[in-house]
Amino acid sequence: MAVAFLLYVFAEIAAIWAVGSAVGVLGTLGLLLAGAFLGSWLARREGGKAMRAFLSAARAGQPAEKELTDGMLVGLGGVLILVPGFVSDVLGLLLMLPPSRAVVRRWWLKRVEKRAIRFANQRRGPVMVVDSEVVSSDEPQRRDQPTVIEGRVIEG
Questions:
Q1: What phi-psi label fits residue 125: left (phi over 0), alpha (psi between -120 and 50 degrees) or beta?
Q2: How many CB atoms lie within 10 A of CB 99?
Q3: Which terminal residue of the chain has fewer beta carbons within 10 Å of its beta carbon, N or C?
Q4: H or E segment at 147?
Q5: Mean per-residue pLDDT over the chain, rounded
Q6: d(Cα 5, Cα 12) in Å, to the nearest integer?
Q7: Residue 96: closest CA among 33, 42, 37, 40
Q8: pTM higher than 0.90 for the full model?
Q9: How far is CA 28 from the centre of its chain?
Q10: Could you tell me if 109 and 63 are in contact, meaning their C-beta atoms sit under 8 angstroms apart?
Q11: Nearest to 132 by CA among 151, 153, 154, 116
Q12: For residue 34, what is the enclosing H or E element?
């Protein structure tokens, strides 16, 4: 983690140095301020959209993992924009834009699902998510015998 932070700091310094060399000190400060203002406006707009989408999904009684993840990513993007620097501004702006946020959301939800299944398997035995439902076997089974659910073989 410390190595990643050091790489980030070096990338920020290099980006500020490069932009400063190209446009000067005042131009660099202007770009940093413009990025902060644009980012805060985008964070407010996209955060409001995510909140409205979450509320409508909650009122309809539908699962809202997409809306919650969007809200989380917009919040993270807002924090990244508040951190001074061009690399963090670019990452924050990418999290604010819906197309790139959708890519990150898909990756994040797959990661969370895998970790949840692994955690559940450690705590209470073999578990699998089938069409967004957690399915587990209440019957004790042998370790070498796979569980078959809806025609799928699940190693436990």
A1: left
A2: 7
A3: N
A4: strand 147-149
A5: 81
A6: 11
A7: 42
A8: no
A9: 29
A10: no
A11: 116
A12: helix 2-60
Dmax of the chain from CA atoms? 70
Residues found in the chain: 156
Give one DSSP letter per residue of 99-129, joined into a string.
HHHHHHHHHHHHHHHHHHHHHHHHHHS-EEE
Angstrom distance (rounded) from CA 55 to CA 49: 10
Q: Which two tokens stand for residue 31?
A: 């770009």
Q: Which of 81, 82, 86, 80 is nearest to 18 (CA)?
A: 86
Query: Residue 68 is encoded by which pair of tokens?
Result: 């919650």
pLDDT, position 127: 52
Query: For residue 95, how many other CB atoms are within 10 A of its CB?
Result: 26
Torsion of CA 90, 100, 69, 39, to 10 degrees: 30
91 vs 36: CA distance, rounded Å: 12
**Rg of the chain over all Cα atoms, to the nearest angstrom:** 22
| pLDDT for the residue numbered 137 | 52
Between CA 35 and CA 119 the distance in angstroms is 40
Rounded distance between C-alpha atoms, residue 74 and residue 23, angstroms: 30
* Structural tokens at position 64: 């809202």
Token pair in block for residue 155: 């190693």
